[in-house]
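hey so u asked for the seq, here:
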Amino acid sequence: MATKRSYRWEEISKTNPIFSQIRTTIETPFYGNNVVEVNSIKEAYKLAADSPGTIVTDIPVFEPEKLGLDSDSKVLLFNDGAVKGRCAAARRILGEPNVDQEEYASKIREAVYGTRYTTMYHAQAYVGLDKDFMVKAHLLIPEGHENIMYSWLLNFQYLNEEFFNLYADSKVIEGEGDIYIFSDPDWENADHPLGLTFFDPTHNCAALLGMRYFGEHKKGTLTLGWGTANRNGYAACHGGQKRYNLSNGEKFVAGVFGLSGSGKSTITHAKHNDKYDITVLHDDAFIISTENGSSVALEPSYFDKTQDYPMADDDNKYLLTVQNNGVTIDEDGKIVLVTEDMRNGNGRAVKSKLWSPNRENKFAEPVNAIFWLMKDPTLPPIIKLSGSALASVMGATLATKRTSAERLAEGVDPNALVVEPYANPFRTYPLVDDYTKFKKLFDDNNVDCYILNTGFFMDKKVTPAVTLGSLEAVVEKTATFKPWGSFSDIEIMEVEGFVPDMNDASYVEQLKARMNDRVEYVKSRDTEKGGFDKLPAEALEALQKVVNELK
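ran it, structure tokens below
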């Protein structure tokens, strides 16, 4: 499936669902006489390397020709100022309560007008890497921000002959236009001191204003791509997926869902000491068909933290661009990186698709199991859920902690445990859409559901070795699950040192409180945002049953 960009004259009308006030406002400046088309990844590299403030390191890009780059290409570093993460408080989504279309259309028109004396770059890429699902995306960004554009083209799929032909061979998705994103990182407005990320999701467009951080552009683009997928028979997935190609000929496809810092990238890329032949789909963005369980990756590259990678780490050879890190001179007089978040928290890098040697853009095999990654200290390392309603609503009440990847509004406690449905804070459509789609996967596609606690169990850290060992037991079908306490729909695989004492009244009370938090969260959806995210009664009933069974 592919989006549609050009139209016959008779299609250009208010009656065409592709057009809207916001979309027309955002798309129009792409055709201005101050716009320069960037037609290749090589051109984007040169523009970024020459952009003021860029540091061209002496680190060579690994196998650059495979990425469409010249043989002498180097890793580029660009640092922002105080901002080093995304800002949820800046998001406004058309269709949600108290979001006035005319107010924001006016602000976007003024932002566009403010760039008329500036050279603007127009870059194009694909979101979705298989003809089953491909959305063409357009970015318009001012001169001076070439590094954002270059990273954007690397993160998604820049236009080349292979993907041009793949896109041309895709069936047009009726009623869906290309993604258009207008960006002005230098924009300022007293009404929006943190900046503004405005989305008209049903018309596939966004304005990113006052946003220097590349992650806003990556996730802003994915926001619209996931929305398109949701409207067209796919479950939108902010997580990782890998396939275990077992020696007996069987294949096991595992999807892991968690926010930054939950371990989804670690789990996705884990080689298990080369115990298995593993194929990776992606570690951050993909979609699952609710019709046949197949999956499609949305982007080729990886946007990874640099905090766990000392400069000598072998994985650093796959770096393409780096953001918010330091540099120094090594003993040979070469400019090299200073990583491990010494400059600031949430240092980031775009890594090459070559980081995963066994990589596919589509898994035709249906997903076997979904793992919700949580940081809930009352949960043991692994539990298994029965019943599609409970499995789906536990994803809708996925609990985790805030991370350094987020820029929080004043007064928000960074240490508070929070709920983020399906680990996807970038959803622009009603929560029931995700609930229904994942429930359908559990119901109709026989997908198993587990929760992995990757944080602390009470005061004891659940190590990566424990998590990966639990996952291996599931994949190898050696895991023994038994009823957990008085629960009828939750089973536990007991891990030595992490077995809950269900006779400990204090522990049971805490567990009940955490489960009740989920109940209260679902109840709050009835009124929050005017009921935009209200879930069906069965979702609440499944959670309430868990609370009632705790004695």
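The radius of gyration is 23 Å. The chain has two domains: 2-56+80-232, 235-301+360-500.
lmk if thats what u needed
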